[in-house]
Amino acid sequence: MIKNFEEVLQKVKHQKIKKLAVAVAQDRHVLEAIKDADEQGIAQAILVGDRVKIAAIAEQLYMDLTRFELVDEADNNKAALKAVELAVLGKADMVMKGLIDTASFLRAVLNKENGLRTGKLMSHVAVFEINNFDRLIFLTDGAFNMYPELKDKIDIVNNAVVVAKAVGVENPKVAPVCAVEVVNPSMPATVDAAILSKMNDRGQIKGCIIDGPLALDNAISEEAAAHKGVKGPVAGKADILLVPNIEAGNIMYKTLTYTSNCKNGGLLIGTSAPVVLTSRSDSHESKMYSIALAALVADEIRTFKSET
């Protein structure tokens, strides 16, 4: 099982290189990530945006733009639509947000006529490499779905399982994280967690092991689970943390990012092609890891389509 991002990068290098369409590519951190991804053989980029601005930043980074295809489009909204169109037409395997606000970028992704809709719920999966953990942690959904209902959480779990399997976790353990580890009818998230667990037991949610509700400590710490007498196949061993709402996920994401010595990447899935949707404040390293994750997921989606 892959345990860190170095192993993620190595896995990506052993598959066919993927094409990445970048919407509004005139962003320094994004171009740094693209440069790293190209040098490491992770992905080839199609840069869509203002050619003059892209060239100016590339010069500062000593980045050889002759290695990349450039699509000159100064209008941000049109650039986003063009980047998405490249994926729809099969000219790119994945799409990345550049120097454009998230709402405008997502309008292009969700465009009814030429977007990446599949009819499935879209959700965000963040992947963390945290010191002292023997595995990667998958956090969902702290960026896209605000207050998911039970039916939404089923899709969010399924999306996260796709990412985990693409990374190499064959049978991911899913913890629906709540404030407590017991079912409390006054706390709807605990009821949802119990239902998800039972659906998994009955084979209605496949490809993973779900057990909950679990509080965060006994989801990720075997010592804490043992101390509280919490038993089960997921207790202390969770790979995927399913948060109850966007506030919990956002707070957890930023707490890990800013207070722990960790590495992370993330993407939007449930689309016909993976979407690299990072924060403007994310480092170029984080963006590069996100590209690597998207490349693995793109390969997983392609394999699934060829088998069906």
Automatic annotation (TrEMBL):
Transmembrane segments: none annotated. It is an enzyme of class 2 (transferase). It comes from Clostridium magnum DSM 2767. Residues 77-295 form the Phosphate acetyl/butaryl transferase domain. Its EC number is 2.3.1.8. InterPro entries: P_Ac_Bu_trans, Phos_Acetyltrans/Butyryltrans, Phosphate_butyryltransferase, PTA_PTB. Keywords: Acyltransferase, Transferase. GO terms for molecular function: phosphate acetyltransferase activity; phosphate butyryltransferase activity. The keyword Transferase applies. PANTHER family: PHOSPHATE ACETYLTRANSFERASE. Gene3D superfamilies: Isopropylmalate Dehydrogenase (3.40.718.10). Belongs to the phosphate acetyltransferase and butyryltransferase family. The keyword Acyltransferase applies. Pfam families: PTA_PTB (PF01515). This is Phosphate acetyltransferase. One of its GO terms (biological process) is butyrate metabolic process.
